[in-house]
């Protein structure tokens, strides 16, 4: 190597190194310790690169040699939020027609372009991490979105993706009976029949980059005269066990869409780490979830949002779920069911609030702090990312947000995020 080039190269290495090691100090008006609920005044967060180095008490700022000082002394600062149930590739599907149009009339590239917008919205909403639970017929495009975000090509949250999702043959849209039978339609997920196909699906999805395995455990929900709910299980015991076993063997966790005991108990016995929706769960389900340490991701707002449209479509079950949800939620939290925040946004419009579920949770019995914990420390635990996300502490990623006013007093403030940092970079600035 030419000597000049060598020097140039060394200079380049040195400046890149300096760049990565830049120190940012954030002066916080109020700072929430999400674990204890303590709100501390005038603390400073020190960040090196993308990692939080320290949280220092008032007065220490003068001693910190920062390259950049960010003044959030008029703001309330808390960790970036985590949404454990999103569909960035979906743009609302209140009716089956909404759904079919996206799959049949929009190409996957077009849907992916729309998903770039969804990812940006999630980040602007203060959700610095999402677990995206299925591309709904858009192949492995979630893996590409995650890659583009990680390579700084587009803005977006940290993504944990589950690619195609899995159900059994004939139990997921697009529904053949809605169209001329001689046509062949794409499906919103990967269909399997038999334990071996279940194993193959898990292996294929992980090979393509799935971080999580998503299954649909039941369908055809109905209400009995005594007010309880039942459904049709989608998998045989052999199928669901094979999928759970294959996921575990690759050290992946499984998320199960499951509404009633017919799906919930089967999914938990197969090793599911989270039950999605669960609107029709009964006392046996609640007991089993507590006993097996399974998270409930209740997705409350989406159910209300789709209830009217689906009732018009001839299916009133979401309306019944809405009516029974408050009592179920308070029973589950009293029993000690662990809750992780998840919205199912994408199932409802991306222009609707992503922080709406906080409001419902507080209405149904959680304190604002407990509601915030579902989207921070609880969600980090579900994602096996404890100490990395969901907390502002040394060693964690610099994923930090700020609001005006105290969300531990008024959780609605989380619908107006004023400032967002992800991975040590500011993505949304105060006005
Ligand atoms: Zn969903």
Describe the structure.
With about 425 residues, the chain is an alpha/beta fold. The chain is built from 13 helices and 19 strands. The protein has helices at about 5-20, 95-105, 110-125, 140-150, 195-205, 235-250, 260-270, 285-290, 300-310, 315-335, 355-365, 370-375, 375-380, and strands spanning about 25-30, 40-50, 50-55, 70-80, 80-85, 125-130, 160, 165-170, 190, 210-215, 220-225, 230-235, 255-260, 275, 295, 340, 400-405, 420, 425-430. Helix 7 (about 260-270) runs parallel beside helix 8 (about 285-290) and helix 11 packs across helix 12. The protein is globular. The model is unreliable at about 5-15 (pLDDT under 50). Bound molecules: zinc ion (ZN). Zinc ion binds near residues 85, 344 and 347. Zinc ion binds near residues 85, 87 and 133.
Write the layout of secondary structure elements.
Layout lengths: L2 H18 L2 E10 L6 E10 L2 E6 L11 E12 L1 E6 L9 H10 L2 H17 L2 E6 L8 H10 L7 E4 L4 E3 L21 E3 L2 H13 L4 E5 L1 E6 L5 E5 L3 H13 L3 E6 L2 H9 L4 E4 L5 H10 L2 E3 L2 H13 L4 H19 L2 E2 L16 H8 L4 H7 L2 H6 L17 E4 L15 E4 L2 E4 L3
Parallel strand pairs: 1-4, 5-6, 6-7, 8-9, 10-13, 13-14, 14-15, 15-16
Antiparallel strand pairs: 1-2, 2-3, 4-17, 11-12, 17-18, 18-19
Helix pairs in contact: 5-6, 7-8, 9-10, 11-12
């Amino acid at each position: 190597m030419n000597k000049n080039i060598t020097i140039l190269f060394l200079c380049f290495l040195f400046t890149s190194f300096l760049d990565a090691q830049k120190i940012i100090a954030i002066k916080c008006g109020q700072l929430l310790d999400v674990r204890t609920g303590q709100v501390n005044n005038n603390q400073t967060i020190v960040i090196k690169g993308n990692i939080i180095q320290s949280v220092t008490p008032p007065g220490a700022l003068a001693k910190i040699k920062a390259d950049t000082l960010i003044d959030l002394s008029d703001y309330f600062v808390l960790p970036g939020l985590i949404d454990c149930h999103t569909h960035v590739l979906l743009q609302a599907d209140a009716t089956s027609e909404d759904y079919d149009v996206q799959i049949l009339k929009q190409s996957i590239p077009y849907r992916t372009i729309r998903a770039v917008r969804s990812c940006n919205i999630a980040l602007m909403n203060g959700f610095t991490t999402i677990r995206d639970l299925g591309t709904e017929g858009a192949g492995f495009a979630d893996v590409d979105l995650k890659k583009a975000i990680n390579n700084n090509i587009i803005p977006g949250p940290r993504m944990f993706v589950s690619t195609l999702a899995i159900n059994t043959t004939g139990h997921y849209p697009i529904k053949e009976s809605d169209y001329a039978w001689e046509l062949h339609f794409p499906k919103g997920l990967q269909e399997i029949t038999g334990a071996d196909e279940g194993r193959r699906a898990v292996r294929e999805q992980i090979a393509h980059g799935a971080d999580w395995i998503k299954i649909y455990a039941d369908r055809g929900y109905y209400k009995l005269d005594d007010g309880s709910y039942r459904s049709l299980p989608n998998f045989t015991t052999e199928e669901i066990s094979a999928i759970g076993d294959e996921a575990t063997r690759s050290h992946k966790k499984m998320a199960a869409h499951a509404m009633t005991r017919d799906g919930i108990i089967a999914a938990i016995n197969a090793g599911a780490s989270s039950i999605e929706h669960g609107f029709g769960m009964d006392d046996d389900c609640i007991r089993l979830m507590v006993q097996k340490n399974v998270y409930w991701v209740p997705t409350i707002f989406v159910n209300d949002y789709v209830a009217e449209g689906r009732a018009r479509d001839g299916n009133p079950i979401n309306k019944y779920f809405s009516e029974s949800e408050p009592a179920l939620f308070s029973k589950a939290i009293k029993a000690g069911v662990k809750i992780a925040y998840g919205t199912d946004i994408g199932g409802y419009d991306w222009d609707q609030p992503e922080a709406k579920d906080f409001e419902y949770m507080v209405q149904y019995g959680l304190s604002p702090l407990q509601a915030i914990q579902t989207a921070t420390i609880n969600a980090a635990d579900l994602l096996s990312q404890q100490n990395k996300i969901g907390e502002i502490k040394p060693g964690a990623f610099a994923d930090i947000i700020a609001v005006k006013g105290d969300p531990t007093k008024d959780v609605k403030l989380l619908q107006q995020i004023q400032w967002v940092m992800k991975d040590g970079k500011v993505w949304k600035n105060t006005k």
